[in-house]
Every structure is written in C-alpha cells, then in structure tokens.
UniProtKB/TrEMBL annotation:
Protein name: Iron-sulfur cluster assembly protein
Domain Core: residue ranges: 22-123
InterPro entries per record: ATAP (IPR016092), ATAP_core_dom (IPR000361), FeS_cluster_insertion_CS (IPR017870), HesB-like_dom_sf (IPR035903)
GO molecular-function term, one example from the UniProt record: 2 iron, 2 sulfur cluster binding
NCBIfam families: iron-sulfur cluster assembly accessory protein
Length: 128
C-alpha cells in the first residue's frame, strides 16, 4: 500500500487593494522592478511594507522583498509593481505614496504619509 499523497499547499488568502491604500511613484517602480528582477522574483515578487513600533517618533516602516502575498495581506498593483501590506499596517499607510531617490545623503525609499501627525527630523519614523 502506498502512502497517501501530501495535500497541496493552499494558495494564500489575500485581498486586492488599490492606489488609495498606497501609490508607487515612477522612480520607486523602476528601482523595485530592478531589485525584484535581480533576485529572480520579477514575475510574482512584491515589496512588503509594514509599520512597526520604534524610531524616535514611535512608528517606523519596515520594507522587504518577498515572493508574494501571505494570508490576510492586502496586495496593491501600482505602476506595475506589487506591494503587500498586512491589515494592521494598512490602517497607518492608507493614502501614502512610495518614492525612491538616489541622493547620497537622503536617498532610498521614502513614504509620504498623509496620516503622519509627527515625523522625526531623520524622516525614518512617525506618529499617527
């Protein structure tokens, strides 16, 4: 008698969001497409944005490249780039824009968040 077949891994259960949650601006889209391609994730990869406690203003962004959405995530397709956000973080980033700058001192990915009541001088953390 043969062993029973292992059950197939279930696809994650996620929601589709829109650019009212987060909008990826052209510079950020180009950089993300380049990074995802270099990692071999161009087809299904995504940028995960999370809001976590920390920083001098109380909250900060955490960004990672991932293989796609996880259970309960909200996935937004903006400028042909996938962004995934957990439901709790979505409460803090709604209406935000993601940009990228090559500036030597202030370069990198930057979130412009209309919900941020207080931001610190370094621009890395906020309070909502």
């Amino acid at each position: 008698m043969s062993a029973p077949a292992s059950p197939a891994l279930a696809a994650p259960n996620y929601k589709i969001g829109n650019e009212k949650l987060i909008k990826v601006l052209p510079n950020a889209a180009r950089k993300l497409t380049s990074l995802l391609t270099k990692q071999g994730r161009a087809e299904h990869g995504a940028l995960r944005i999370a809001v976590v406690g920390g920083g001098c203003s109380g909250l900060q962004y955490k960004m990672d490249l991932v293989d796609g959405p996880a259970n309960r995530d909200i996935m937004v397709l903006s400028s042909d780039v996938r962004v995934v956000i957990d439901p709790k973080s979505a409460l803090f980033v709604s209406g935000s824009e993601l940009d990228f700058s090559d500036d030597i001192q202030q370069g990198g990915f930057k979130v412009t968040n209309p919900n941020a009541i207080v931001t610190c001088s370094c621009g890395e953390s906020f309070a909502a």
